[in-house]
């Protein structure tokens, strides 16, 4: 049974063996026979799953466990009584078909469980080729569904991808030397070389596209199987109120099937000859949440042709209607993409199709992330003046993620997006605006999370990015949120949302009320002024701990002094509190610092009175509280290649802006802050964030008298930060 029975055994695959008997042999003789069979295999270090069963026992096991039932359907004779094996397999298939309607929910639940556990092979950087959605196990499920006789499985388009995934699995077993089914990043280069791929990413793309075809085939087969199972109806009149089984639609389209399982199709095959047919089908299916008939998708793919340049208005309207459908867009886009329609309409889509992203923040390939961004933008369509431009910018925002583009992909993508929307038929002014949004789609998030909101240069940078227009700012704000939500939870946390919203609100007020030259800042948006005044009155530190979505928040205010930042960071690290994000500001000699930490409950954070007491001791010169973090830092071994330190030119006129990127660790902030103190520089504000284990920390530093450091002092500070990030110079506690 299993891969051995299907003649798909990998170089390191386990053997699934059944010693089948008719039940008439004495128990002792079976024991002796099984030992003579199994022991040579064990001695040869062959991994296997083995059992001794009668046909009735096989049927009983298949009835109890759906995974066992699926595996036994592949039963094949290796040696012995072929008639006994054939009869057993016939009985198993008969039982499988007889109980198919009852067991279908169990079978489909197993698919959902694997997706929840292993994820989607088409979009993972390290997919499990066997268990993930679209992997080898799904092909086994396709065969099992077809064996129920409730549905047939698609044949065209899935056999070749499946064979290719088997090749990749076999190469992975050979290169890794073990029964490895997850395509780990460390193995990709060797697997790609063995299979003849020029670039590792070419292998990843082929795996992604193959998994998509298999997953799409599973979706269609599951849908057909569900349709074959009658739905229970509670009220007798429900049968009379069902939607029609067939209706005509505009543009020569039809909708067939009952409610919840309806398909969009072509009334006549000749309709597919119209260049707009695919867009009409996609728009109707997405708008009403319908499935594109597999036959229709095949006909569209066989006859698709480039649209006129520029697109006619009807084509543009249908395309935008499809994009505006929210979550319904995903399966429709997938079907049209697999049919070859998308790349025919948008040739710019080809280079990013199935392109992997080597960034742990992202959960999807470039193209899937872009479509997900369109879906996330749906919630903003009523909040902007031009929802059509928001949708197009969302679709094309990462179109510049080409080999070698890296951090410059927004600038690379802007002219590509401009050419695409020109061809779609936008006016020159609208096309310019889409290109602007693509070019600046990272600007708001970067300024909000890594720059001082109170610095005029930060405000000026955002005003310049949106061309001084509040309507463009609204579009950029919506695109920023949609992009972050599509990337994953790490990219759109409550903390990041609050920072982005705060800066956007501040600049919107400038543009609407005071004009782009009004740099008045409402400090109450950034700091708790009441807390700052209390500290200023009596000179005593204050600590407040509050619950927040995604973790606790510590608000710490104290008289500003050299080393306060590092002392606070070290105190938290010594107490076992991991800082996820922080913003630090100084108001009239009082530092008011907000720290987001990884503790979900306020009770898990050190007591506010204890923290206050420790801060006062540190201010008085008692450094004992920092000894735990000092010892931890002395043992740190960061990856040198991950460390990047730079001065950000033009970010401020009144302070040096220094940025550090490296792998996060418990004592990092303490070490960085202490390194700046060691060279006598004061931290005016700091902006700390951690994404997918990577720290991105920005410091606005001045001389103790508030003057901006010169180039020599900047170089000194950068050297100190670099040594601290590499744990080469651990400061004394």
From TrEMBL:
Residues 366-472 form the HD domain. Uridylyltransferase (UTase) activity is inhibited by glutamine, while glutamine activates uridylyl-removing (UR) activity. Pfam families: GlnD_UR_UTase, HD. The keyword Hydrolase applies. Residues 1-246 are annotated as: Uridylyltransferase. GO terms for molecular function: nucleotidyltransferase activity. Its EC number is 2.7.7.59, 3.1.4.-. Has four distinct domains: an N-terminal nucleotidyltransferase (NT) domain responsible for UTase activity, a central HD domain that encodes UR activity, and two C-terminal ACT domains that seem to have a role in glutamine sensing. Belongs to the GlnD family. This is Bifunctional uridylyltransferase/uridylyl-removing enzyme. The gene is glnD.
